[in-house]
Amino acid sequence: MARKPPRWYFSFRSPYSWMAYRDLIGRYPDVAESIEWLPFWEPDDHHNEHLAQNGVQLPYVAMSREKHLYILQDVRRLARERGLEMVWPLDREPRWEVSHLAYLVAEEHGRGREFIDRVYRARWQDGLDISDPEVIAGFGPELGLDPELLGGAAADPAVRERGLAALAALHRDGVFGVPYFIDGFEKFWGVDRLPGFVASIRGRAAARTAGVAG
């Protein structure tokens, strides 16, 4: 069986995923260019129903008040360490399909990385509501993408089918949170595990180079 490429699962919802993204592109651009980028999100009821019909149950657990308060403190601390100015968005009626399915559209048109950067900036630095289709559509002109395709992704049956495939993939990979990094059989969960993931990938690359040179 062929070895799957190294990959990481990101989510626009997670501040830890946002920081992992910043670390990945800022500190480890060689690794960022050599891995697959895959979205992770909490599906809506319709997607959940289809997943359940296919025996897929994603491991989502409600967050306790104590954990929420800890995350507020921890994220501020990590942002200061990175010199990041951030805001904490208010998710009144979150619909994570809106942004993550729009990513699939942007990725299909070769603008996935730019879309990720724009959405992370919108959510964690500008405080915009990325569950609003109009907000997502508004990124279209600056990214060279059709606003209607982005804003309407969550309602497009074909894109929703691709979303189901993406959710099934993270289920097969055993992903239970983000950021989540996979290199072969090695799995790394959390922004603080990114250096280990990088070392694993670079170590294999160095071994291949040494083998060729030898």
Automatic annotation (TrEMBL):
Query: Which transformation does this protein catalyse, written as a reaction?
Result: 2-hydroxychromene-2-carboxylate = (3E)-4-(2-hydroxyphenyl)-2-oxobut-3-enoate
Which InterPro entries does this chain map to?
A: DSBA-like_thioredoxin_dom (IPR001853), GST_Kappa/NadH (IPR051924), HCCAis_GSTk (IPR014440), Thioredoxin-like_sf (IPR036249)
GO-annotated molecular function = 2-hydroxychromene-2-carboxylate isomerase activity; oxidoreductase activity
What EC number(s) has UniProt assigned to this enzyme? 5.99.1.4
Which keywords appear in this protein's UniProt record, sorted alphabetically? Isomerase
Q: Where is the DSBA-like thioredoxin domain?
A: 9-199
**Active site residues per record:** S14
The cross-references to Pfam families, in alphabetical order and at most eight, read: DSBA
Q: What is the similarity comment for this entry?
A: Belongs to the GST superfamily. NadH family.
Which protein is depicted?
A: 2-hydroxychromene-2-carboxylate isomerase
